Amino acid sequence: MKRLLTLALIALTIGLSSYNVGNPAKSIFLSNNQNADLQSGDIIFQTNSTGLSAAIQLATRSKYSHCGIIFKQNNGFYVLEAVGPVKATPLTEWIAHGDGGKYVVKRLKNAASVLTPDNLVKIKLAEEQLKGKDYDLTFEWNDERIYCSELVWKMYKRGAGIEIGKLEKLKDFDLTSPVVKAKLKEHYGDKVPLNETIISPVAIFNSPLLVTVKSN
């Protein structure tokens, strides 16, 4: 197992050379491009007012209902996201899925020192271990299925040892809206796991470890 992980790290290190991560604070910027202020490891947020997203917005009292981690490859950007399944989506396609194409990009305040090539490899490896997992409609704190903010939190925790966003319990959210109640009923029946550990998109968004680098 240890040998397999070592080989995986070597392969990812070679692959990430195409991400231009030699100096993640500077070297992967694109000149004269709308994405010139993005870099691998940035966290991107958007809103979608339909279906489950609407319930998430109401329960968390936030307009942001989805997030992912940006990486650059072959001179293009994509977003690592949990949307059923966990996968990489081209950035332009990801943005188009949100309401009005609106989004916000945030970055670690100390990204230059934390997002080293080694840590970026580890963060990407954490995603590789979860790739293909189905979307978790019941928001359970395990790896059997994964939801969007859980993927972001676990990638940073396992890859860089950083906890971005405060973990909460389901009971900490506003569950009073009829829309939220209907979704709880749909996914849990009469046994709502109020003590289930949850990481919400807005908890990551509001983390004091992050700073906004781009929004529209």
Short description:
This protein is α+β, with helices and mostly antiparallel strands and about 220 residues long.
At the fold tier of CATH, the topology name is: endopeptidase fold (from Nostoc punctiforme)
CATH class (first level) name: Alpha Beta
Strands in their spatial order, largest beta sheet: 4-3-2-1-5-8
Radius of gyration: 17 Å
- Spell out the CATH superfamily: endopeptidase domain like (from Nostoc punctiforme)
The tally of domains stands at: 1
Number of strands: 8
Overall helicity: 25-40%
CATH architecture: Alpha-Beta Complex
Strand content: 15-25%
Note the overall shape: globular
Provide the succession of SSEs. HEHEEEHEHHHEHEHE
Terminus-to-terminus distance: 45 Å
Largest sheet: 6 strands, antiparallel
Which structural class matches the secondary elements?
Answer: alpha+beta
Number of helices: 8
Query: Overall mean pLDDT score?
Result: 86
Uncertain ranges: 1-33
Question: Which SSEs are present, and which pair or pack?
Answer:
Elements: H1 2-15, E1 43-46, H2 51-60, E2 66-73, E3 76-82, E4 86-90, H3 91-96, E5 104-108, H4 111-114, H5 117-130, H6 148-160, E6 168-169, H7 178-188, E7 197-198, H8 201-205, E8 210-215
Antiparallel strand pairs: 1-2, 1-5, 2-3, 3-4, 5-8, 6-7
Helix pairs in contact: 1-5, 5-6
Q: Overview of this structure, please?
A:
This protein is α+β, with helices and mostly antiparallel strands. The chain has a single domain, classed as endopeptidase domain like (from Nostoc punctiforme) (endopeptidase fold (from Nostoc punctiforme)). Helix content is 36%, strand content 18%. It contains eight helices and eight strands, in the order αβαβββαβαααβαβαβ. It has helices at 2-15, 51-60, 91-96, 111-114, 117-130, 148-160, 178-188, 201-205, and strands at 43-46, 66-73, 76-82, 86-90, 104-108, 168-169, 197-198, 210-215. A six-stranded antiparallel β-sheet has the order 4-3-2-1-5-8. A two-stranded antiparallel sheet has the order 6-7. A hairpin with a 3-residue loop joins β3 and β4. α1 (2-15) packs across α5 (117-130) and α5 (117-130) packs across α6. The longest helix is centred in the N-terminal third of the chain and has 14 residues, at 2-15. Mean pLDDT is 86; it is low at 1-33.
